[in-house]
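Quick question, first post here. What does this chain look like in 3D?
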Amino acid sequence: MKYDLKDRKFWLASEDEIKNGLATDFYFLNVEKAMDGEKINPRVTAEIYTRHLPYQDQWGVLSGVYEVLKLLEGLPVSVWSFDEGEVFFTSKNDIAYEPVMRIEGPYRYFARFETALLGFLCSMSGVSTKAARLRYLAGDEKILLSFGTRRTHPVLAPMIERGAYISGFDGFSNVIGANLIGTKASGTMPHSFILLFDDPRDAWLAFDRHIEKDVPRIALVDTYYDEKTESIMALETLDGRLAGIRLDTPGSRKGDWRKIVEEVKWELYQRGGRNVKIIISGGIDEEDIIKMNDIVDGYGIGTSVSDAPTVDFNMKIVEVEKDGKMIKKAKRGDISGKKEVYRSYEKGEDIIQSAYSEPPEGYEPLLKKYIDNGKIVRQFEDLPEIRKRVSDRLKWIREKNPRARLIY
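> Answer (accepted):
Ran it through. Tokens below.
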């Protein structure tokens, strides 16, 4: 073979390479060399934040905190952070931004980790934010199934399923992703299985004969005939065992998608299938949920979550040590000095202010100390705890429409 990788099977950075700071941008190696040559290594305060989100609603769900803490563990730095799964806000109208994480320590020792750190936070928060938005729009009662890991690099599958889980999804198709979450992977059948048979009824019956009885009988109903016809066939063929139908019609065949689903629902109801759940999939995104939420029971959601827009986090130095004192500094466009973020759930408000000011009465701090001089000092939460936090915050957003403001 003329060309082949020598030390790995796939184009992937290993955990050790990430932990050792090799998954970095080259200019950080220049920084290290120049700092060593100058014999300087001042303490700095760096904040991680984003100025904007790729959505009209300026709230997001922070994810990737666990990975960042594991990345920085053992380095001579201290880290404060929002909790995993916490909601953060941005503002389009002023300079206010919420630092979701703060790092303090000698810059030489953590500069090269900025690339991987931001990579964790940007991509993982992108997934959890998008998944949370879909749950917010669907409401608590609708079924959300994560189908999207085939649309991204397989190494990211567990991260995607985790982000969907903490943001309120109910089912997860990826086996290793579900295993790491601690739940059972779910799914029924693809079109390819039905195409092995000349009649979709034979495929549904084969599934029914051989798949464990605790797996819901959800029939895929748009392979050979129109959705209404196959839905009736599935109801009659499985004779009371049909738990649901899934419509995965391609865009070229959808026509008026809502009317097609209404037809299916009517025909099922006329034949005693009032309890048969209707699941739709195939390119589902926010506008589909807004349009279809009152007539379907759930969604199979893929690319819109697995290929979610990243959250554009930055890491910026806001203080630099000089002569034993921390001097407030910032590049143009940023605001200097370390900050704190406080929240009032009752008022529906976050306050951003200087860390050197008195805390506002009746508000609680969101930045909590997670690493003290290289040692993790705060216990990691279980995923169900993080999932509940996201659920509670979505209810809070719906009730209070909270915002953030800067106190000078």
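The first helix runs from residue 15 to 19.
The longest strand covers residues 314-322.
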